[in-house]
Amino acid sequence: MAQWTRAQIRMAVSITGVVLLTLLLFQKSPYSPTRTWKWSKKVDKNPPTDPPLKLWQTGASWTEPDQSCLDTWLSTNPNLRHEFLTDASAETFVRERFASRPDILDPFLAITKPILRADILRQLVLLADGGVYSDLDVNCHVPIAEWIPAEYRPFANLVV
Question: Which residue in 91, 95, 103, 93 sits closest to 26, CA to CA?
Fold first, then answer.
């Protein structure tokens, strides 16, 4: 068997996390006679013009290099609210936001591998509160409001 590089392993773990979250969200829920999430093609007459101005980041602890990257986000997006979750606060966040969704909460709490839990957490914080997720070492050079061209803003609700 060929040896996988760290990048290949990380990509495989990320893809697995997204697939798992998708399966969790779209499975038939025992708590509802219909699917848990319903999608509509109806377009909001007054859609938000910008993504929520909230930046999510996770990590074991905060460091000076992390602060210099965060400063680029805050200077480029002056109204940005920053949310930083540690492993402990992340579990509390998921317990609080998804208390009524045992079909999401229980599998999340059952994950023992930190990297898998982190991959799922990224999706859950955005699902719960919206905003932008960024790794700690990423700089922002363009305001978030400019990420979606104006002509697509009425139709866009997700940027990947």
Answer: 103
- Can you give the C-alpha Rg of the chain in angstroms? 17
Q: Is the pTM of this model over 0.70?
A: no
Tokens 């070492």 belong to 137
- Please report the DSSP string for 4-43 in residue order: PPHHHHHHHHHHHHHHHHHHHHHSBPTTSSSBSS----PP
Q: Measuring CA to CA, which residue among 128, 123, 159, 92 is closest to residue 17?
A: 123
Q: What 3-state DSSP class applies to 83? A: strand
In sequence order, the 6+-apart residues with CB closer than 8 A to the CB of 91 are: 109
Can you tell me whether residue 105 is helix, strand or coil? helix
pLDDT band at 6 (very low <50, low <70, confident <90, very high): low
Task: Work out whether strand 81-85 and strand 54-58 pair parallel, antiparallel, or are unpaired.
Answer: parallel
